[in-house]
Amino acid sequence: MLEYNEILPKKAILLDGNPYEVLDAHIFRKQQRKPVNQTKLRNLITGKVTEQAFHVAEKVAEADLGVKVVKYLYTRGGEWWFCDAQNASQRFPLREETVGLAGKFLKGNTPVEAVTFNDTIIALRVPVKVDLVVTDAPPAVRGNTAQGGTKQVVLETGVTINAPLFVNEGDVLRVNTETGTYVERVEKK
Fold first, then answer.
1. What pLDDT, on the 0 to 100 scale, is given for residue 26?
2. Rounded to an integer, what distance in angstroms lies between the CA atom of residue 95 and that of residue 83?
């Protein structure tokens, strides 16, 4: 059980039988009253964000989340197919809501961590940075580059991102999967 002041960001708590991730927590006093922990919580199953206040006398249970390694295989018809990292014959699909936006940066046979609650996969932890090959890049166009010029390039997973003008087809780029942005060029063709 967590006390009201132990409910901090990045913790997983159990509220009304559902697992929540604490996104933000702020402990304050209202005039002469007792302290309150005002939190912003994200439901790990539905993804909805809510605000909840915890008072001094309140306690909350920590969510029992498990983690297992799974391997991404392919996407077909809106379903993302994965298999157990140790046994490729144990295949299963996940919905796009479970995979999240970072799923568009996954290559085939990429190992990822699956977060489980009551033996059900509720979320994926994709590596923060991945290296992907540029499959299509238009030629650089001369012009106003005082603020840094960018162009749209297509990566090997089919996703389009903005990259600097010097990026060419065949280059390997490091991409941040949380923001979907270019980080650096790893290899030059």
1. 87
2. 14
8-state DSSP, 98: H
pLDDT tens for 89-147 read 888 888 877 777 777 888 888 888 888 888 888 878 888 888 888 888 888 766 656 66
Nearest to 160 by CA among 184, 136, 186, 140: 136
Question: How much is the average pLDDT of 20-47?
Answer: 83
Tokens matching residue 132: 């992907």
- Token pair, residue 174, equals 């490091």
Residues 110 and 158 in one domain: no
- Which CATH number fits the domain that encloses residue 181? 2.40.50.140
Q: Who's near 25: CB < 8 A, 6+ residues apart?
A: 7, 8, 9, 37, 38, 39, 40
Minimal CA–CA distance to 12: which of 4, 2, 181?
A: 2
Looking at every residue in the chain, the average pLDDT score rounds to 82
Enter the tokens of residue 126: 């994709």
Say yes or no: 76 and 44 in one domain: no
Q: Which residues pair with 113 in a beta bridge?
A: 69, 125
24 backbone dihedrals φ, ψ, rounded to 5°: -150, 145
pLDDT at 15: 84
Q: Establish how many alpha carbons lie within 13 A of residue 84's alpha carbon, considering only the half-sphere containing its beta carbon.
A: 5
How many distinct structural domains can be found in the chain?
Answer: 3
Residue ranges making up the domain that contains 30 = 2-62
Domain stops at, among 125, 141, 159: 125
